[in-house]
Amino acid sequence: MGFNCGIVGLPNVGKSTLFNALTATAAAQAANFPFCTIEPNVGRVAVPDERLEKIAAIAGSAKIVPTQLEFVDIAGLVKGASKGEGLGNQFLANIREAAAIIHVLRCFDDPNIIHVEGSVDPVRDAETVETELMLADMDSLAKQISNIEKRAKSGDKELKAQLDFMLKVKEALDAGKAARTVPVPDDQQKTFRMLQLMTSKPVLYVCNVKEEAAATGNDWTKQVKTMADKQGAGCVVICAAIEAEIAQLASAEEKAEFLQTIGLDEPGLNKIIREGYRILGLQTYFTVGPKEARAWTVRRGARAPEAAGAIHTDFEKGFIKAEVIAMSDFTGLGGEQPCKDAGKMRQEGKEYLVQDGDVILFRFNV
Fold first, then answer.
1. How many CA atoms lie within 13 A of 315 on its CB side?
2. Pick the residue with more confidence: 322 or 111?
3. Rounded to the nearest 10 degrees, how much is the dihedral formed by the CA atoms of 78, 83, 87, 93?
4. What integer pLDDT is reported at residue 78 of this predicted model?
5. Residue 346 contacts residue 297 (beta carbons within 8 Å)
6. What is the pLDDT of residue 71?
7. Residue 302: HSE in the Cβ half-sphere, 13 Å Cα cutoff
């Protein structure tokens, strides 16, 4: 699975506490001092989806297998990281490998927890991290441009087009704009990915608040939301301390009762996972039978053979057709056979664009 989100932020904002809650483990050390997370910790969590349980119940599936999202807890960043300050070089290398950025911002005041800047200001903190990423991108891009300029002198049109596009990205970075703000032509999508620019990655801001603000947010979270909206980024409000408590509860009933007592409808982690899934441009389709009901991850815009390949490469290579039932039909009519009887199972070919929630049976030949 290549879908992962790197959890970043300044030291002491709650990154490791959040990661521990996400994975329900103590793998990442949480402590009140900078750089307590020395190595990136990786954990996979199930993507919450009520639809999977519904189709499993209808089909009488013996086993339920949700799709998963990977989270990487990355060492805290400080000013000067782009020049190697603190654990900068390691931080930058780790985040470069992530597909999306979950940026945890401290939106609470607590004299017992030190802030590296001496005061709470989440928008400033976000700009600090973004600036370091941009500076590192500018350095990386300058080297790549220098390399391609030499090769483009041969008159190769493709290389010239790549160079022109890279210069547009450089222009944006020089103007203080993230690489993700640059429109990418279809013929330069591959080039853009190969540049591996950190500010090209989608961002989700996670506002970490105290318990009393978990349901409503506060003035700091409103400022972050305004910033996120301007950038086209995601934004959720959570209390990492609450999430850590919820993660330790054994049963769904206990968790529901605890959430009810503090006025929350669901764990904040669910919102983070769903938003992470969304900003990565992902969707879910399902396979179902008596043995198991399973959710599969596929990018939005994927065609049927690509979706089949999520199960096994042989399914993609030998793809013949996909038998598709819409989620609403499957749950509304009561399963596969009633859908067949009602003519709601469709035969789709290689050009079919998979829709979120499709229930699919692939036919293939190897």
1. 16
2. 322
3. 110
4. 57
5. no
6. 86
7. 22
* Chain CA centroid to CA 107, Å: 21
**Who contacts 89 (Cβ-Cβ below 8 Å, separation ≥6)?**
81
What is the predicted pLDDT for the residue at 27? 38
Query: Cα–Cα distance between 348 and 327 in angstroms, integer?
Result: 16
Distance CA 348, CA 360 (A): 10
Q: How far is CA 56 from CA 66, 104, 201, 284, 360, in A?
A: 11, 35, 35, 15, 14
CA distances from 226 to 14, 178, 221, 229 (A): 22, 17, 9, 5
> Three-state SS string across 202-257, please?
CEEEEEECCHHHCCCCCHHHHHHHHHHHHHCCEEEEECHHHHHHHHHCCCHHHHHH
**Cα separation of 28 and 7, whole Å?**
12
What pTM does this model have? 0.82
Tell me the pLDDT tens digit for each residue of 277-311.
Answer: 888 899 999 999 999 999 999 999 999 999 999 99
If you search the block for the tokens 């780790």, which residue do you land on?
A: 94
From CA 19, how far away is CA 29, in angstroms rounded?
A: 10
Tokens representing residue 318 in the block: 């030998």
Q: Can you spell out the DSSP letters for 136-197?
A: HHHHHHHHHHHHHHHHHTT--HHHHHHHHHHHHHHHHHHTT--GGGS---GGGHHHHHHHT-
**What is the token pair recorded at 358?**
């499709």
Hunting for tokens 């990786």 — which residue is that? Answer: 42
Name the maximum alpha-carbon separation found in the chain: 69
Q: Measure the CA–CA gap between 277 and 202, rounded to whole angstroms.
A: 11
Instruction: For residue 311, give Cα distances in angstroms to 260, 294, 350.
Output: 38, 10, 16
Model confidence pLDDT, tens digit, residues 7-45: 988 888 888 888 888 776 433 333 433 434 445 577 888
Specify whether the CB–CB gap between 161 and 190 falls below 8 A.
no
